[in-house]
Amino acid sequence: MSRKKIILLVTLIVAPVIIYLLWPTDESRIRKLFKEGAKAIEKEKIDDIIAKVSFNYTDEYGMTYLYIRAGILRAFQRLEQIKVEYEITRIEIKDNTASAELDIRVIASAGSDTGYIIGDAAKPLHMKFSLEKERFTWLVAKSEGIRFDF
C-alpha cells in the first residue's frame, strides 16, 4: 500500500473514534443547560434564560413561554444580587424527551432585605423538569414543584 492510502485508512478509522469521544452526550448537554440557565439568572440576562425554555412550554398552572418571560422581567425589576444554588439529583433520557430533578436554592435581595426566595438553608426546593430535544438542543418544556407567581 502506498503511504497516502495508509494515511487515508488511518484517518477513516481514527476520525469517527475521536468524534465519538469528543461529541457531548445528551446528559452533558442537559447539565450544561441548567448551568448556563443558573448563570443567566444571576446575571439577569432575560434572553439567555428564555432561550432555555421551549416555545411550547406549558405546566399545570397554565404558565406558558410568554407568561414566563413576562414574569421573569417583573422579578428582575424587584430583585437584585440573585444567587442560584442547585444540585442535579437525577436525569433520565428517553429518545427526544428527558426529565431532570434538581434541588434548588435561590437567594436574592429586594431593597434592603436579603434572603431565600426559593428553598432555604435547611431544605432546598425539589423540582422536576421535563425537557424536549429540538435539533441538538435540550429545552425545558414543563416544570413541577413550584408555582411561579411573578
What does this structure look like?
The protein is 37% helix and 35% strand. It is of the alpha+beta class and 150 residues long. The chain is elongated and about 75 Å long. The longest helix has 20 residues, at 3-22. Strand 2 (97-110) and strand 3 form a beta hairpin.
- Please state roughly what percent of the residues sit in beta strands, choosing from under 5%, 5-15%, 15-25%, 25-35%, 35-45% or over 45%: 35-45%
Rg, rounded, reads 20 Å
Count of DSSP-assigned helices: 4
Unreliable stretches covering 5 or more consecutive residues: none
Query: Which descriptor suits the 3D outline?
Result: elongated
Q: What is the makeup of the main sheet?
A: 5 strands, antiparallel
Overall number of strands: 5
* Through-space gap between termini: 70 Å
Helix content percent band = 25-40%
Name the average pLDDT: 90
Please write the string of helix (H) and strand (E) elements: HHHHEEEEE
The class by helix and strand makeup works out as alpha+beta
Which characteristics define this entry?
single chain; 150 residues; alpha+beta; five-stranded antiparallel sheet; 4 helices; 5 strands; elongated
What can be said about this structure in brief?
With 150 residues, the chain is of the alpha+beta class. The chain has helices at 3-22, 26-42, 46-50, 65-78; strands spanning 80-94, 97-110, 113-118, 125-134, 137-144. It contains four helices and five strands; from the N terminus they run ααααβββββ.
